[in-house]
Structures are given as structure tokens and as C-alpha cells.
Amino acid sequence: MFGASLFALCASAAPGNAQDISASTTAAIHGLLIAASAPAISMPVWTSRPDSAPSYRRNPTVWTGAAISLTGKAAWNSFTGTCGTTAISPRHVVYAEHVKGLYPSGTTVRFVTDRDEAVERTVISSVRIGSTDIDLSTLDRPLPETIHWFKVMPAHWFLKCARRAPGTVGGLPCVVMDANTQSVSLADLAGFYSSGFATEPPADSLRLSFARTLYRGDSGSPMFLLLGSELVLDGIFGVVRGGSEISSHIAALDAAMQGSGCQVTVADLTAFASR
């Protein structure tokens, strides 16, 4: 599937003061998991999620903790239900094209603040990004500051991460917010092909206990890297263990946003060492 372009990633510290992304991310995730409750208790985003009557209750024991905002992942939309929809600017969301195609004008997208307040916006236009599985919709007005839209990993960010031989076990931990159960789980980022990504079950037993297999209805679920105390979007799932890498299409996304007063915000990786 991946051809000669596949490479994989590992946790390996960089020399000097600069950090390696894989080492930093792995350490941060493990610190959170060690402090977390059991996976069954700390993976769900919600303790109450009545989509028909928006009175949501966030899970106070979610393993990512209070410092990491999850509010930019929409709870629901009126076109595809809970299928993954993620904010990448105050006025734009991304999701998977293959689910039902472009969100039509008038689609309601519902977010929920950290204080359990529902915030709804209406789609006014939508566009497919080239021939990818990525769709972008523009909202009628900006999201409030209580909804944290996500920065995006820069193109070729993997140059800040140590390489390992294809086919070996293990990888870079990534965070997944699935659409069906709306839980926060973990996978290992195994590698890239063309403008897509592939994941595999975590090699580490602790991370594996927080893993979840995606299935039909999870398309569009976002895949993040944890940088410090911030989740940064790198891709959206289109198949069980992979999908489209957002960071490969930043220029096209910016072009589609033109005239809205917004653009993609790229994460600053200057603190990390190049390999």
C-alpha cells in the first residue's frame, strides 16, 4: 500500500538542548497516562451526550487533563451526525469527503465549551481540497474564544523526528478523537505515503491499554500530535488505520480560505532539533 516512500518514526532523544519531537511527545503522553484513571473511565470525552437535546457534560477525568483543550472537535453536525468534524480556524472545519460529500449550506455544526455550553454555527460554503479525502467548510461567523480551534503540523515536520527502519515495531504516539464513541485514544504513527499517514497499535503496553480500533462511522476522526500541553492536528482518518495528512495540504487550505480573514495556523517547531 505504501510503496518505497514509507518510512517510520521512533522515540529518540536529540543531542544538545533542542528536543526530538518523538521523545518529547512520548514523555508527555506517558506522564498523563500514569496519572490517569483506568481507560474505561478516562477515555470518554463525555459523561452525558444527548445529541438531540444539547445538554452535554464533559468527563472531568479524561486522561488528557484540564490543560489540554478538546473543544475544537465538534460534538455533532446536522448532516453526518457525529462523524469527525474539526475546527482549524475560527471559521473553518475539516472532515472526510468520502462519508457523504460536502456539507451543504445550512448544515449546523455544534461545539461544546469546557463549561459544557453548546456553541452552534452554520455552514455557508464547502469545498473539496483537490482530489483528496479532505473537505473544508466555512462557518457563518467566527467561533468564540471558548472553542479552541487547532493548529496544524507544518509540512515535512518529520524532519524533526528520528527515523527508524521500516517494518520494525513501535512508533510515534499520536492522539485520536474518534467519532463513534467520542473517546480520546492512542495509536502509534507508523509512517507516511504520498500525502497520507498510517498508524499501528501502540507497541508500549501502557499506551496499548488506551488504544481503540476505529470502524465504520469514524471517518474524519482527527489525528493529533501532543506538543507540550497542546494538541496539534496532523491528519484525519479515512480508513481504519490511516488517512489524509493535513500538513501536506496547507497551501491548498489557505487558498480555499481566501477572503474569509482566516488561514491555517502552523505550529512552531523551532524548539525541536532537525535530524
What proportion strand? Answer: 25-35%
Domain module tally? 1
Treating each run of at least 4 consecutive H or I residues as one helix, how many helices? 4
CATH architecture: Beta Barrel
Proportion in helices: 10-25%
Uncertain residue segments: 1-16, 164-170
- Name of the top-level CATH class: Mainly Beta
- Whole-angstrom Rg: 18 Å
With strands numbered from the N-terminus, the spatial order across the biggest sheet is 4-7-8-9-6-5
Mean pLDDT: 86
Overview of the structural elements:
The structure is a single chain. This protein is mostly beta strands and 275 residues long. It has a single domain, classed as Trypsin-like serine proteases (Thrombin, subunit H, Beta Barrel), CATH 2.40.10.10. It contains four helices and 16 strands.
Explain the layout of strands and helices.
Layout: E1 8-9, H1 21-35, H2 39-42, E2 46-48, E3 57-58, E4 76-77, E5 86-89, E6 92-96, E7 108-112, E8 118-128, E9 134-139, E10 163-164, E11 172-177, E12 184-193, E13 196-200, H3 205-208, E14 222-227, E15 230-239, E16 242-245, H4 250-257
Antiparallel strand pairs: 1-10, 2-3, 4-7, 5-6, 6-9, 7-8, 8-9, 11-12, 11-14, 12-13, 13-16, 14-15, 15-16
